[in-house]
Design a protein that fits this description.
alpha+beta; 6 helices; 7 strands; 42% helix; globular
Length: 152
């Protein structure tokens, strides 16, 4: 499956933005309940423009593309910053392939996940990451992020 993973390109930004918007609404709206953010700020065009205006964002983004962009991973150094799969394609091993790619090709060793996103934390644990006990507040919210590190 890693043969389908490639660096994101400019022509991918609208699809990347769709995946980010849909995942935000599905996974984070139930936690934060912010209409203003989830249905105001989280719009495809502004998110796509962020990627177009900051070439560094694309530089750190890899997509799973088998003819359709089905997921993405954003990696900075040895940290997985974001990993999302289009909700319609979840459960097909795409997220696992993206995470494996981050670990094997970019030596990713850690990430932060929203403490209340139990589903994501279980996914990362199934793939060799462990909660360290370290946590910080998610910026401008009362919610915590938990730190997960790759088990050796």
């Amino acid at each position: 499956m890693s043969e389908y993973i490639r660096r994101a390109r400019v022509e991918d930004v609208s699809r990347i933005a769709e995946i980010l918007v849909f995942n935000n609404r599905l996974n984070f709206y139930p936690i934060f309940r912010s209409d203003e953010y989830s249905f105001g700020e989280m719009q495809v065009i502004p998110i796509a423009n962020e990627f177009l205006e900051d070439p560094g964002k694309l530089e750190h983004t890899w997509v799973y593309d088998d003819g359709v962009i089905r997921g993405l991973v954003i990696i900075h150094g040895d940290e997985v910053k974001r990993l999302f799969v289009e909700p319609s394609f979840q459960g097909r091993g795409i997220g696992a392939a993206l995470l494996r790619y981050a670990v094997e090709q970019h030596h990713a060793t850690h990430l932060w996940a929203l403490e209340k996103n139990v589903r994501a934390i279980r996914f990362y644990e199934r793939h060799g990451f462990r909660v360290t006990g370290e946590k910080v507040f998610e910026e401008d919210t009362p919610e915590y992020l938990v730190h997960l590190k790759r088990s050796e």
